[in-house]
Write a structure and sequence with these properties.
Elements lengths: L2 H12 L2 E4 L6 H7 L2 E2 L3 H13 L4 E6 H6 L1 H10 L5 E6 L14 H7 L3 E2 L6 H15 L3 E5 L1 H5 L19 H5 L2
Parallel strand pairs: 1-2, 1-3, 3-4, 4-6, 5-6
Helix pairs in contact: 1-2, 1-7, 3-5
């Protein structure tokens, strides 16, 4: 099984709803998960956050340039909190083989103060499960950074049990009164 297949299996196991905006190198991953195509990345993250407020887990699958379009709702979600886990799956293209730039999206994680996980060939399932766990524990979006090497390589990853938790919304006095 290659990394794309292992990650798709993991996303199907650990999430309830998936959204996507196609692009290299994540189009195959998004297709294998049956993710719903959305108009743009910002809207996709907003949909995922709405799913979270209903208590379900959601993933948004985008390419590296698409992570930039998510900044506004991503920063707002960090302040507001969430209930069900939300994972932003970003396909980075370090060599710009099929993308406009060789952008490194880990800086997005630093800017938004969210956890960023980078699986290797043996940890595809565990990384997706952990991304949802930390999203729910810290009540913020988690980012899963993928590269063509992980997506195209041979994976020996094995499933781990799904353990749903619940996040929490921020105290209303923090968000309604400044």
């Amino acid at each position: 099984m290659n990394g794309t297949d292992a990650l798709a299996e993991a996303l199907l196991m650990y999430s309830d709803v998936r959204f996507m905006v196609p692009g290299y190198p994540i189009t195959g991953l998004a297709d294998r998960t049956g993710a719903e195509m959305v108009i743009n990345e910002k809207t996709g993250l907003e949909y995922a956050l709405g799913v979270s407020l209903c208590g379900k887990r959601a993933a948004l699958i985008v390419k590296n340039v698409g992570a930039n379009a998510c900044i506004d709702p991503l920063l707002q979600a960090t302040a507001q909190g969430l209930i069900g886990g939300v994972v932003l799956v970003v396909g980075d293209d370090p060599l710009a083989a099929g993308s406009q730039t060789s952008q490194d999206t880990r800086i997005v994680g630093e800017l938004a103060e969210i956890p960023v996980l980078e699986p290797d060939m043996q940890t595809c399932h565990a990384a997706v499960a952990e991304a949802f766990r930390v999203s729910e524990e810290f009540s913020r979006v988690a980012m899963l950074r993928l590269t063509p090497g992980v997506l195209e390589g041979e994976s020996s990853s094995a499933p781990v049990p799904r353990q749903d938790r619940r996040g929490r919304l921020s105290d209303r006095s923090w968000t309604m009164h400044g």
